[in-house]
């Protein structure tokens, strides 16, 4: 079973609640094939999680926190931050042939500094 260590420790973002306000995902709760993606960012730090179950050894799951002193989205006009996260899990059984496909991707854009993580199987 895949767990996200420290996920609930990410800070709240002003009026917008942090991850502690949302339920933690549980992999392998009756579904052997699943995917999860999450991203959060504030100036100077971002957290990105991209995971599939079962994990693909060739493209390992990602759970990372990036910290940097020179955030490009310091307060002021014209600065921006954006996050995107997407995941999918698909299974089919055609004439007894089972096929599974899973993927997860997160992107954080800190005023042009883009960090992207993608896992798939």
From TrEMBL:
Ranges for region Disordered: 73-121
Biased amino acid composition, Low complexity: 82-92
Domain of life: Eukaryota
Protein name: Uncharacterized protein
